[in-house]
């Protein structure tokens, strides 16, 4: 279980050092609404949370218009498994997830709390806007796409369906993935090619086989005559 206690848009979009403080979990209702006028930054806030959870885009980051990419930074304090942890996400470098003291964290520190949801899944389920709702409706009607898949998973009680499908895709790619040379089938084809070449090197035509049999028979007859 993961609960957002604070969200910090340290340098993100048009925000600088902007904190949303939701406080510690109360005993009663725990529901918060962030509201504002058009262009106030509601979508930017939502995108800031997504960057924290899943990382910044590798290129063409749309929220670096005020702050340079190297300076982009979002953070949060979260209640996880009965404890409170601080996270910071930066945009540059290989390791982009840090704790509150700047120490590098593995991605699993957050991903294990997301129940197997990909960023696309999270957007479709929890970050609804007009475009997402319209696209999701089409996917539901046609029983395809991430939204249709997630609804099927919920109806069937398969909460980990996304993880299962991703695992199956990786296993399928390991068996066959187009022109790559590292899959199981690609390696078997290479082994077959080597065996075919070996067979050709030892292959004898029918005429040559007949000639050699006659030569062997003649040699045997000569040997028998010599020993008689």
UniProtKB/TrEMBL annotation:
Q: Which Gene3D superfamilies match?
A: P-loop containing nucleotide triphosphate hydrolases (3.40.50.300)
Q: Which positions carry the signal peptide feature in this UniProt record?
A: none
Show where the YhaN AAA domain sits: 2-209
| Domain of life, source organism | Bacteria
One Pfam family, please name it: AAA_27
| Name recorded for this polypeptide | AAA family ATPase
Q: Name the source organism.
A: Endobacter medicaginis
